[in-house]
Amino acid sequence: MEIKRENFTIKVSEPTLYVDNKSRKRSGHMTHALAEYEPGKLIDFNSNCTAVKYGGHSTFGWVEYRLSQDGGETYSDIYELPYSKESLYDGIYVISVEKAVACDDGRIIAICLRNDADSLCQPWDTPMIVTSFDGGKTWTKEKELCSYKGRVYDACYHDGVIYVLEFCNDGTGHFCGEKEEHVYRIFTSHNNGASFEELCVVPIPTFGRGYGSMLFDDCGELHVYAYNINDEQHLDHIVSKDCGKTWGEADTLYLKEGIRNPQSAQIDGVYILHGRNADVNGFVLYTSEDGKTWDEGSYLGHEKGTCYYSNNIVMKGKDNKNHMLIQYSEMYGIESCVDVKHVWLTVER
């Protein structure tokens, strides 16, 4: 697939099947964390969830991952994240890992959401972390990231600092903001995950907001995007030029096809945004040269329903060019049960 724009062309590979849940009669929502812990060495998470409860659209199950030594071309056998299996057996929480980061010293930090075991995917308790110092072979005991209940929507590692974006809403009601205390907070760690502290409350509207995405652009400016359930074609956006200490004025960005659960990134000067469209009947990808004005959108998938949770990571390929791996869930025909697929994206000028 090619997406031609005035100043660049986006090339997207044909999808490949990463997790074949259909053949094992399982499903796999929400967990799509990706992290490069050494050059060309990738850890790629997915969930192994029931295909029966809630039609396969739940987090009831455990977290798996695989390791790649060649930049995502081939993968190891499946590993299970011990904390997630222990939690499932305890029966109080089930664990999702939507985001993970890798630090300069090679350690991997998996951010673990604690979902109510008897519900679809919420309410949430406080987020936890587990750390691996040996490339995903073993993990530390879990510990609390912060004291606020909610869902971590994004995390990144920038100039030796971990940044974590959490929407502090425990989800006992709607997952979108309903109360004044439902706000987006950014937490940071300056010691590779040994401890975290609150950096700021992001000054964007929060009533009716949910999901969220965060990125540092090529100039070092920090962007935060938030979904508005009452206006799915306009995405809230705000920028900080000093790593979250102060913020500019919030604005709204028009997206022709709308977006749910947005995921953002930048590759070779081009901003990428992808997620479910507003009508929940496709997987849409947008491009921009400034992170504010987006094109009309292109569809990477056309299934209708509650799928297309996604994530991405940019890595150097063997050709020394940047390649973006996009991982996403796609229904395979039984209610809301999903497989997990991969596409690769590159930019040509």
Describe this structure in words.
The chain is mainly β and 349 residues long. It is 4% helix and 48% strand. It has a single domain, classed as Neuraminidase (6 Propeller). The strands form 6 sheets. Strands 1, 2, 3, 24, 25 and 26 form a 6-stranded antiparallel sheet that branches. It has a 4-stranded antiparallel sheet with strand order 4-5-6-7. Strands 8-9-10-11 form a 4-stranded antiparallel sheet, with helices on one face. A hairpin with a 5-residue loop joins β17 and β18. The protein starts with a strand and ends with a strand. The model has no long low-confidence stretch (mean pLDDT 96).
H/E element order:
EEEHEEEEHEEEEEEEEEEEEEEEEEEE
Query: Total number of helical segments?
Result: 2
Strand content: over 45%
* Spatial shape: globular
Low-confidence stretches: none
CATH topology: Neuraminidase
CATH class category label:
Mainly Beta
Q: From the alpha-carbon coordinates, what is the Rg to the nearest angstrom?
A: 18 Å
Average the pLDDT over all residues and give the rounded result.
96
Structural class call reads: mainly beta
Keywords:
single chain; 349 residues; mainly beta; Neuraminidase; six-stranded antiparallel β-sheet; four-stranded antiparallel β-sheet; 2 helices; 26 strands; 48% strand; globular
Note the topology.
Layout: E1 2-4, E2 9-12, E3 16-19, H1 21-24, E4 34-38, E5 41-49, E6 61-68, E7 79-80, H2 82-90, E8 93-102, E9 108-116, E10 128-132, E11 143-144, E12 151-158, E13 161-167, E14 184-189, E15 197-201, E16 209-216, E17 222-228, E18 234-240, E19 251-254, E20 260-267, E21 270-276, E22 283-288, E23 298-301, E24 310-316, E25 322-331, E26 338-348
Antiparallel strand pairs: 1-2, 2-26, 3-26, 4-5, 5-6, 6-7, 8-9, 9-10, 10-11, 12-13, 13-14, 14-15, 16-17, 17-18, 18-19, 20-21, 21-22, 22-23, 24-25, 25-26
